[in-house]
Amino acid sequence: MSKEATVLFDAPGPRARARHRILAVVASIVLIAIAAALLWRFKEKGQFEGKLWSPFTKWEVWDNLILPGLGNTLKAAAVASVLALLFGVVFGLARLSDHWWIRIPAAAVVEFFRSIPLLILIFLAFFVPNKISPSIAESQFGTLQRVVVDNFLSVFGVEINAGTVTVPAFAAVVFGLVMYNGSVLAEVVRAGVLSIPKGQAEAAYSIGLRKNGVLRLVLLPQAVTVMMPAIVSQLVVLLKDTALGFIIAYSELLQAGFKQVPPNYNNNIIQAGVVVGVIYIAVNMSVSRLATWLEARSRRSRKTAAKTMGGDVGAPPAAGVSLAAQAGSTGTL
Amino acid sequence: MFDFGPFFDNFDQILEGFWATVRLAAAAAVLSLILGTVLASFRVAPIRVLRTFGTVYVNILRNTPLTLVLLMCSLGLNDVLALKFSDTSSVTYYWWAVLGLSGYTAAFVCESLRAGINTVPLGQAEAARSIGLTFTQSLRMIILPQAFRAVVAPLGSVYIAMIKNTTVAAAASYAETALVMKTLLDQPSFTSGALPLFIGVAVGFMILTLPTGFFFGWLHKRMAVAR
């Protein structure tokens, strides 16, 4: 990069190269100084002592705490991913419906769940049913509540006991992840279908396909290719957000590795944080690799004329920022 | 079930929580823009050390859950390493929450800015150089005005995500809206007000996020580059 011109910097001549070398030395010194100061602080507070780090070389720590925690993280992420994709497809297509009585409620649901924080949704599922179910049980909907919980929600471990509904942390985390990420994915699906050139739908209609056929045979197959990277990068966000289960004591990786390990092993908070962080980074980076690979692959394929949506930055599109604005920019979808 | 009485009985507390959320979001917005700009300049710099540092920083922060980042700041750096901003615990936890949230958001701001710079075609810079503009001149008059316009919409998304992410600071003992909500819901006597409390908090966040979204959408439309 330094040998050729970029948008910002022209190809450096001899004087610029000398200047860059001096700046590189200065920058290295500053960065090393900051790192050294931090490491010095570590040493001062005795954070390099072997007894703080050695727990992570013991198999029982991994076997009893970290690996089950990672398992729970992956379990919540897997269940939530499947349901969120389902939610996203249903609501994304509902927002494209020709009937206003489908389109508008779907838009309201998606925009509502996208504009409030995930943690608040997790609190809704975790605390609220327990509080309001006794009063529902006394009302005319009591039987309905019992039937719904017994027959459907019990799959996620939701229990009803004498009219009081108890939602386990796992179900609460999954509910929040599905509603929030499902709404974001609904926008991805909508943008994906809208990004297919209009001529495709027109051609499909002109050969006599109906609405259903146009969508199912022509638009969706192309849209899936276009959306793939954006979907995978949203799933990375979902995986990362399972860590919010920490706050309602769901025993996922952060809870197990960061909350339960330190009290048992000399209060090694920083060390536990480093180990847990490395695991998260490794898992997320491998999923992101997958996104990059998919993006490269779909860019190579010439099955669609539409531009692939980037999966680079994980932030969801903003409510109010139009889809065209997103598609025209760098692909934060 | 829809008894708003308990909600308004604790209205002062909830408003205080929202005020704490706004203070955190405002400070993090400013600091993350500064940090993100510095990081973006590192990532496009012609000096390899800085580029590597920028890449490593962004990849670490983007792939770590925010909950862990904030907990490392409050429990790790503040409590264990005793790097405190102040001896008052609420003050030092506030600033660590600001710093953690800004550090995390800065990685996303940096990526948006870098992507914005990359949307400017190389020909624009070449043309600027060929008519004899210096580095600062071409940056100020040709490249940044175009890059800034391309950045508005993604930056809006990043900021809205950041406002919603302030709730995670509940994990790091900062008494903002989510922690107030959790404290109220933890009381066994707080039953009939639970659903109204959720509705109130949800509406409160919509008041914060929706106008931000419309503002950035409006700004984007106003500033769009015809290319």
Protein described:
Chain A: Belongs to the binding-protein-dependent transport system permease family. Chain A: Pfam families: BPD_transp_1. Chain A: InterPro entries: AA_ABC_transptr_permease_3TM, ArtM/GltK/GlnP/TcyL/YhdX-like, MetI-like, MetI-like_sf. The complex is a heterodimer of chains A (333) and B (227). Chain A has helices at residues 14-44, 50-53, 59-94, 100-115, 118-138, 142-151, 169-194, 198-206, 211-241, 253-264, 269-300, 323-328, and strands at residues 159-161, 164-166. By secondary structure, chain A is mainly α. In chain A, strands 1-2 form a two-stranded antiparallel ribbon. In chain A, helix 4 (100-115) packs across helix 7, helix 5 (118-138) packs across helix 7 and helix 7 packs across helix 9. Chain B is mostly helical and 227 residues long. Chain B has a domain at 22-176: MetI-like (MetI-like fold), CATH 1.10.3720. Helices cover 79% and strands 0% of the residues of chain B. Chain B has helices at 5-9, 11-43, 48-63, 66-80, 89-119, 122-130, 135-165, 177-186, 194-223. The termini of chain B are far apart. In chain B, 51% of the residues are buried. The model of chain B has no long low-confidence stretch (mean pLDDT 89). The interface between A and B is large, with 75 and 90 residues.
